């Protein structure tokens, strides 16, 4: 394999995962003989290639390219704590054995993951506050605080003598984010003065016109639905969406209900939020074992399994196999989560199972109320970001081909001079010349064992 060593005049971007797909992000930046890894994530229930029908529970990008030259890997930076950005690191770290740099909340989540695989004492974690400037090898870095559906989402400003990159990570413009600071363009407008050569940008919602909906509007919608319910309410949502969980705790308090968590990942996330100062002290969470003793109109439970996962708590509730809670006819199961493409059949089976028992369900597409909102930018937000930062080159990532093509069009309309699109394994040369070397590295996937 060609090991592609960057020289002092080179600045390269090499995605091994997350470009041409949504999930399993693993990005490399190369300069002056060194590489910087940004994010190391997983995807769930995926095949290893497009010709395979067999799926694997945990899948990540094949790191073989960088493993073969790990002496050139200066460090790993994790932008936030979503599984598609951090989930593979505990399984792959032994192949790299380099320090990890991240923010306090993500560090808390990462330490818990490392403890599960016996690596907590081995991994050198640099916990850096929001907006910190720091250096990793030949790369000068700074967190750029944004808003997303998890605490402490941070873009990354990468500066080198050859050129500068703004790597957005996952983001949206949310002026009422429920937790964390509201989105502020002030720091972004200062980046244009720092001569951003390229902006590597989230494309997930580039096909959607307008502006994404605030997390606070989702809270109001959930309150509107739940306040008039007379039976038990169970909400399925992603465990990492701490803002959504805080909103549901507030809804419980305002409607005279008790909030309980069904599923270890939910319990772990709320515990991490408490440890990091993101869970309000005035919002109690009751032990799930208490649910069976409460009147129906005092129950508000949050459950794992919004994607129809067979072993998660929503499916167990549908089978009446949940030790702590049983649902009756007339109770409501509310899905406050997107349908990840590929999971439609599993979710539909789950919904049919509830309905067969007279248990009502409510999904996002069945109501005009925003009972779920996305954590990624729509077209107007992308255009605004390009106008604030004013990079010389736009490199869409974190999306399938259609999403990245739409992102590139938005960048062009925003007067970004160059747009580069490609796939995992393509080498994006940012300096000294701008271009894309297709299939510079063979991009593959590997399965991970829990």
Automatic annotation (TrEMBL):
Coiled coil: none annotated. Keywords: Exonuclease, Hydrolase, Metal-binding, Nuclease, RNA-binding, Zinc. The keyword Glycoprotein does not apply. Its EC number is 3.1.-.-. It comes from the Bacteria. Residues 23-211 form the Metallo-beta-lactamase domain. It is an enzyme of class 3 (hydrolase). GO terms for molecular function: exonuclease activity; metal ion binding; RNA binding. InterPro entries: Metallo-B-lactamas, RibonucZ/Hydroxyglut_hydro, RMMBL, RNase_J_2, RNase_J_b_CASP. This is Ribonuclease J 1. It comes from Marinomonas aquimarina.
């Amino acid at each position: 394999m060609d090991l592609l060593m960057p020289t002092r005049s080179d600045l390269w971007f090499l995605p091994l995962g997350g470009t041409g797909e949504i999930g399993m992000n693993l990005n490399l930046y190369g300069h002056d003989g060194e590489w910087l890894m940004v994010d190391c994530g997983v995807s769930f229930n995926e095949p290893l290639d497009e010709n395979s029908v067999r799926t694997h529970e945990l899948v990540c990008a094949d790191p073989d390219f960088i493993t073969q030259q790990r002496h050139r890997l200066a460090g790993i930076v994790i932008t936030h704590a979503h599984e598609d950005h951090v989930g593979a690191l505990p399984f792959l770290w032994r192949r790299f054995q380099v320090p990890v740099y991240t923010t306090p909340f993500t560090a808390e989540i990462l330490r818990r993951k490392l403890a599960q695989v016996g690596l907590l004492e081995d991994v050198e974690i640099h916990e850096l506050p929001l907006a910190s400037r720091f250096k990793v090898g030949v790369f000068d870095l700074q967190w750029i605080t944004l808003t997303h559906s998890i605490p402490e989402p941070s873009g990354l400003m990468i500066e080198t003598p050859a050129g500068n990159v703004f790597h957005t990570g996952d983001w949206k413009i949310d002026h009422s984010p429920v937790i964390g600071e509201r989105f502020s363009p002030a720091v972004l407008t200062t980046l244009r003065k720092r001569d951003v050569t390229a902006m590597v940008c989230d494309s997930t919602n580039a096909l959607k016109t307008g502006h994404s909906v605030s997390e606070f509007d989702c809270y109001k919608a959930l309150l509107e639905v739940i306040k008039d319910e007379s039976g038990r309410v169970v909400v399925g949502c992603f465990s990492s969406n701490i803002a959504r969980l805080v909103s549901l705790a507030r809804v419980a308090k305002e409607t005279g209900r008790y909030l309980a968590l069904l599923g270890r990942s939910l319990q772990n996330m709320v515990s991490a939020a408490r440890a990091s100062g993101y869970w309000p002290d005035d919002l109690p969470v009751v032990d799930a074992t208490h649910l069976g003793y409460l009147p129906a109109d005092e129950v508000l439970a949050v459950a794992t399994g919004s994607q129809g996962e067979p072993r998660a708590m929503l499916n167990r509730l549908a089978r009446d196999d949940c030790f702590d809670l049983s649902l009756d006819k007339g109770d409501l199961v509310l899905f406050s989560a997107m349908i990840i493409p590929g999971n439609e059949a599993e979710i539909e089976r789950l919904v049919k199972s509830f309905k067969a028992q007279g248990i009502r369900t409510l999904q996002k597409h069945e109501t005009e109320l925003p009972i779920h909102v996305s954590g990624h930018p729509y077209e107007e937000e992308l255009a605004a970001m390009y106008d604030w930062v004013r990079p010389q080159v736009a490199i869409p990532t974190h999306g399938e081909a259609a999403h990245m093509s739409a992102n590139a069009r938005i960048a062009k309309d925003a007067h970004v001079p160059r747009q580069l699109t490609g796939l995992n394994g393509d080498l994006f040369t940012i300096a000294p010349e701008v271009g894309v070397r297709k299939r510079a590295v063979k991009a593959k996937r590997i399965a991970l064992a829990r």
